[in-house]
Amino acid sequence: MSEGWTVAIVTCSDKGAKGERPDTSGEVIRDYVTGRGMAVRGHRVVPDERDQIEAALVYYCDVERVDLVLTTGGTGLGPRDVTPEATLTVVERLVPGIPERMRAATAAVTPTAILSRSVAGIRGQTLIVNLPGNPKGVQECLEAVGDVLPHALGVLSGRVRDHGPVHHRHEESKR
Ligand SMILES: Nc1ncnc2c1ncn2[C@@H]1O[C@H](COP(=O)(O)OP(=O)(O)OP(=O)(O)O)[C@@H](O)[C@H]1O
Ligand SMILES: Nc1nc2c(c(=O)[nH]1)N[C@H]1C(S)=C(S)[C@@H](COP(=O)(O)O)O[C@H]1N2
């Protein structure tokens, strides 16, 4: 991943917020992004409550203005799993290909991956991506989409133009 991107982590977990379980998943995210030259600007552990998840997302997008917010937990079918709904409330545009790739790439190994209702979207110049709750799922999903995140963040921030592989092929064929 490119150097210099800023990241915030939002762990959505009732047990985590009550201090009943160490936030291993948040640490997996931290290790992954810092290992790729990104800087973690904040990390909140919130219960599975829409208003608290939304407030954390809005804070990191609008006040801290990080490039990327990664959430973990609350994407399943449980009655208290509301992270996708909170995310959908705050984003302006969806990026469906990111969760599509996460589910498709990891379901071959972990069939229950399709039970994650995770979404990804854009608020302002921040990309928000939901990851599942368990640490193994977090690692698998990050590996599934990590290669395209620098390009996504580059386009979103205006640092790189949005030219895809078709354009590259065209340029090469002219040489
Ligand atoms: N932040 C986390 N750190 C470590 N493991 C987690 C974390 N969140 C979830 N897990 C693991 O993933 C499993 C599935 O996550 P899920 O969100 O359903 O957990 P839960 O225990 O039912 O609810 P909650 O974490 O909201 O209290 C959990 O049983 C736990 O083993
Ligand atoms: N890649 C991957 N995705 C995964 C998993 C996993 O182990 N690996 N766990 C699944 C399970 S068991 C559930 S219930 C859903 C939702 O988890 P969450 O509610 O903790 O976000 O994510 C799914 N996505």
Automatic annotation (TrEMBL):
Pathway the protein contributes to: Cofactor biosynthesis; molybdopterin biosynthesis
Cited InterPro entries? MoaB/Mog-like_dom_sf, MoaB/Mog_dom, MoCF_biosynth_CS, MPT_Adenylyltrnsfr/MoaC-Rel
| Broad class of enzyme this protein falls into | transferase
Enzyme Commission code(s) on record: 2.7.7.75
BP GO terms, sorted: Mo-molybdopterin cofactor biosynthetic process
Q: Which Gene3D superfamilies match?
A: MoaB/Mog-like domain
Chain ranges of the MoaB/Mog domain: 8-152
Q: Does the keyword Transcription apply?
A: no
Instruction: Identify a single GO molecular function assigned to this protein.
Output: molybdopterin adenylyltransferase activity
Which NCBIfam families does the entry link to? molyb_syn (TIGR00177)
Question: Could you tell me what this protein is called?
Answer: Molybdenum cofactor biosynthesis protein
Naturally occurring in which organism (per UniProt): Kyrpidia spormannii
